Amino acid sequence: MTGLGSKLFCKVGKFCEHIPVFLNTFLVFSITGEVSYLVLVGAPLEAEQKDSVWSSWWKALHLLGQYFMLGNICWNAFLFLKTSPSIKGVFLGGDGLGQGWRYCYTCETHTPPRCSHCYDCKVCVLRRDHHCVFFGQCVGFRNYRYFLSCLLFMWSGLLYAMVMNAEVFIVILKEGVTLHSILLLLVPWIMLVSGQVSARAFAFAFIADTCVVGFLLVSAFFFFHLFLLFRGQTTREWYSSRRPYNLGLLGNLRHMLGLRWYICWLSPLIPSPLPGDGITFQVTGSLEPSQ
């Protein structure tokens, strides 16, 4: 019974690890579908503009931009998950051990500077930044570009969706700020369960709320990582206030995003080879934590 319970617990644990990925996927496609509906019915247009030639061009341009962002989000996320940032398959012998190298007792190998063990991924990760619970994988040397690009298009997509959903907020508040409208915006689930609103009104209110909350959260993550990128730091190094690998703004961009840093953010299909190997790094400051 103990063995059966242990196996069941492991399976449940593995399933729970994938819940954030499924939830993110569901929310991304739900928001895309809702915004597509708003575009197709021409919600932000005035009544006299909805049947004009401008309306057709407006819809085409908005749908093109919308699915360009969705495609970039999905493709960057796919490449992020497909690209392993770990030390597996990487020859670490090199020219011998130097300053910053450590021994990982779990992986039973010496690891280079900026590399650390992830107990979720159960492996050491080159230039490990953090373990992303939303994707269930570590952000490291080889997949950082896809992670940041995914954040960029999620941020821009949520900003766009929030602007498009302004019409939803206007409709909800058109009769003034009442208890009903406030509750619909703040707790749409309770309003649906209690039978105060229809399923259609709930869906629009819930997705509009999700856009606002999601935009605020993604903004925090995105601008924090831009801040780290400009400083040449990982999240772990930010905790210790170290900046020994700061190469200046352009140097940091090339080192993190690759040689084509200035254009690779447009599409994950644009090749942008990284200048380093994730093992050796140019040191420009003290490796000791600042006091």
UniProtKB/TrEMBL annotation:
It is found in: Membrane. Its EC number is 2.3.1.225. The chain crosses the membrane at residues 21-40, 60-81, 144-163, 169-190, 202-230. Residues 101-240 form the Palmitoyltransferase DHHC domain. Its main location: membrane. It is a multi-pass membrane protein. It holds the Pfam family DHHC. It catalyses: L-cysteinyl-[protein] + hexadecanoyl-CoA = S-hexadecanoyl-L-cysteinyl-[protein] + CoA. GO terms for cellular component: membrane. Keywords: Acyltransferase, Membrane, Transferase, Transmembrane, Transmembrane helix. InterPro entries: Palmitoyltrfase_DHHC, PFA4/ZDH16/20/ERF2-like. The keyword Thylakoid does not apply. GO terms for molecular function: protein-cysteine S-palmitoyltransferase activity. Belongs to the DHHC palmitoyltransferase family. The DHHC domain is required for palmitoyltransferase activity. This is Palmitoyltransferase. It comes from Cyprinodon variegatus.
